[in-house]
Amino acid sequence: MDCSGTGLNMNSICDPDDVDPVVKQVDKESGMSILPWEGLRKFRVARKEYENTKRDICSFYLIPEDEEPIPPYYAGQYLTFELQLPGEPRPIVRCHHLSDSPTLRDHYRVTIKRMDAPANAPKGTPPGLCSTYFHNMLEVGDSVEARTPDGRFFLDESSDRPIVLIAGGIGMTALVSMMNWLVASESRREVWFVYGVRNRDEHAMFELLERVAQDNSNIHLIVVYSRPTAACRKGTDYNVQGHVSVDLIKSLVPTAACDFYICGPPPMMDALTNGLEEWGVSPSDIHFEAFGPATVKKSKRPVETAGMGPLFAGGEEAASKNVQFTTYHPTSLFEGEWRTILSYVHLPEFLSDVEADRRRVLQDAGDDGRATQSLAKVSIQRGAEIVAVPRLDGCRFNPPRASVLWIEDLHRFEFRVQSHRQLPGFESGMAVNGTVEFYVGPVLVAETKIWAHLVDKDNLLEPSAQQPERSTTTNFQSVFVAHAHDDVPIIEVLEGAYRALGMNFLRDVHVLRSGERWNQALLDKIEEADIFQLCWSSAAQMSPYVEQEWRHALSLGRESFIRPCYWQRPMPDTPAELVEFHFQYLDLQVPGANALAAAPTSVTFARSGVTISWDSSCDSLLEFGELNGICIPSGCRAGRCGTCVTQILSGAVEYLAPPAIEPDPGFCNLCISVPKGNVEIDA
User: Fold this and answer.
1) In sequence order, which residues have a C-beta less than 8 Å from that of residue 276 and are 6 or more positions away?
2) Is the CA virtual torsion 295, 299, 300, 302 positive or negative?
3) Is 275 exposed, middle or buried (0-12, 13-18, 19+ CB in 10 A)?
4) Nearest Cα residue to 61 out of 104, 14, 16, 2
5) DSSP-assigned letter for residue 437
6) Which residue among 108, 389, 533, 599 is buried most deeply as judged by most CB within 10 Å?
7) Cα Rg of the chain, angstroms
């Protein structure tokens, strides 16, 4: 492949004396003088090997057709394939991690998961092009073309510190390469390999991982199943049920002084990298690479925030990163009797002050103080208004909601609660569950669980006394938002609020490739989220895509998962399936589309002769061009492969993440860039 004129600054087209020092180091250590090849090179499939019982993960062993030696690489790097698929007008470019030890010099191995269209997707939804080609069409003896190994996510072989390898799903391939290199080089470094996957059917390389852990006392394997089936055996197939979290890592690894390598879906990456830094891990010790359609960590893009008040006031120094919520409540309620509920927002070091205040207030109120305590932590800017809303079936509250400005280190919300048989949900003798919800602007940042036995006034037998208890709930890390396209102005305000609070905001424009509205990636993102935010409007009411999303969220059967909100009055009618849900009104002053477009940024595609106002709902210039009918070659869509590198004729762009290969001056990777003012590009 001729790369001249593309703007790429690749090792493969450089003078040998200017080769990347990473490549030079590998060559020196291996004792080989094999440099990266130029352009594309043909490889023959020597072997296919399925790696899981579901048979949707397959390893492909590749040997060069020219029978010349292949250059070494660092464990964690990838191959970039260019595939000419039947019926496709241009080559498809994809990057796949090398999954074997770099010490093996006779072949490369890539391990690929087949991405099928989900069973409940609309008719005609295509499966993953590249993965389907590899699995269904590529046989032993067939050829593929690939570029030389590349990537900035790789194992530091010179370090002697302990290593923590954290993998989510198919992200384990790069980390298996690292593990295999450590075994082959007889490294004695302590290694924790933490692997999160749904269940045994999707558990890849089961025998290999077990064998390596058994044969190497310094390698500790921890397998986490998020959805084990009845056939999955805890202690044999997996160790922990749930999701990979920082709390789990802290329980396994005795020190934060390790090298951390993480590869998985973006929500997992964001939660882990932020949590590890809070634990005290230096950012320079956290190495990560995400996979999937959104393979880069997006920067926080500014959005219109009218009507959001003090939420965005102040800088980083004004944020309290561990704001804690504590609630005390009675565990029995006699009909008609008023009792006290106390909720506190405070810093963790003020918990003893909270306890003292709780005892004083409840004693003054004549309450017996029997209560449970729930804890949640979140990051909130100083000066933000925090609103508390209690909810408990069969009960009413005075006041129904309360608010404070997060200025001091401790604030108290005081509610009076009364149960009554005429209120919805009242059932004498039964325990009812509820929550105290905490909002910053329109964002639900945390909730504490409350419960009580309801006792009618004719029944004098009160439930047995409950000792004070403490339960901990996690704050919400990620939110999937389901919305209609016409509601983008509202959604961007919500997105700004969530991101200002450090929460991961998932939208289909972020998690799906252009042209795909419903696929496995979208299903995964809904299932990985802590909250499914259903943005209800007249447009959402008519959208078949919104309906598909809320129906899938409903099918998961997760308690308190679906959180509907609305802003139009009267609220548009809701389907029967959603009647039981509480719809939160968003009191937002959101500019309309005309206000948002008052001073539009223009993007000129010079070669196509088109100038269009930039749409900030698009995730990149590449996506924006494709949505407007501009044909732009693309591949990895993550700034890795260089396929979409394009010359900037005037103006400037802003990168959402650093490109793996820096283009020449005056060029940019369209897949990871957005315009910085008016811009003209050669496309």
Assistant:
1) 246, 249, 256, 260, 286
2) negative
3) middle
4) 104
5) E
6) 533
7) 28
- Per the CB < 8 A criterion, the answer to whether 621 and 675 are in contact is yes
**Residue 465: enclosing H or E segment and its boundaries?**
none
CA nearest to 385, candidates 402, 403, 410, 409: 403
| Residues forming a β-bridge with 531 | 479
Residue 198: both structure tokens together: 């749904």
| DSSP assigned state of 152 | S
220 or 495, which is more confident? 220
Q: Which of 217, 189, 204, 173 is nearest to 75 (CA)?
A: 173
Measured between its terminal Cα atoms, the distance across the chain in Å is: 20
β-bridge mates for residue 78, sequence order: 97, 150
The proportion of the chain whose per-residue pLDDT surpasses 70, expressed as a percent, equals 76
Residue found under tokens 């369209």: 670
Q: What are the contacts of 359-365 at 24+ separation with CB within 8 A?
A: 361/412, 361/414, 362/328, 365/340
Three-class SS state of 358:
helix
Residue pair 329/401 in contact (Cβ under 8 Å)? The answer is no
**DSSP code of residue 270:** H
Helices 206-215/172-184 angle, 10° precision: 30
Mean pLDDT value across the chain:
78
Question: Is cis: bond before 399, omega within 30 of 0?
Answer: yes
Please name the residue ranges forming H helices in 216-370.
Answer: 246-252, 266-279, 351-364
pLDDT (tens digit, 9 = 90+) per residue, 623-642? 888 778 788 877 667 777 77
Contact by Cβ (8 Å): 432, 393: yes
Band (pLDDT 50/70/90 cuts) for residue 501 is: low
Alpha helices in 324-447 (DSSP H): 351-364
Q: Is 235 helix (H, G, I), strand (E, B) or coil?
A: coil
CA dihedral 261, 263, 265, 271 (to 10 degrees): 0
Q: Cα separation of 292 and 115, whole Å?
A: 10
Q: Residue 493: in which H helix or E strand, if any?
A: helix 488-500
Rounded Cα distance between 548 and 415, Å, is 39
Separation of alpha carbons 147 and 82, rounded Å? 8
657: number of CA atoms within 13 Å, CB side?
Answer: 20
pLDDT at 472 over 50: no
State how far Cα 68 lies from the chain centre: 41
Q: Give the Cα separation of 85 and 93 in Å (integer).
A: 10
Give the mean pLDDT of 123-149.
Answer: 85
Pairwise CA distance, residues 277 & 270, whole Å:
11
pLDDT 10s digits, 302-346: 322 223 333 333 333 345 567 888 888 888 888 888 888 989 888
- Closest to 66 measured CA to CA, from 44, 92, 90: 44
Task: Please provide residue 273's backbone torsions phi and psi, each rounded to the nearest 5 degrees.
Answer: -65, -40
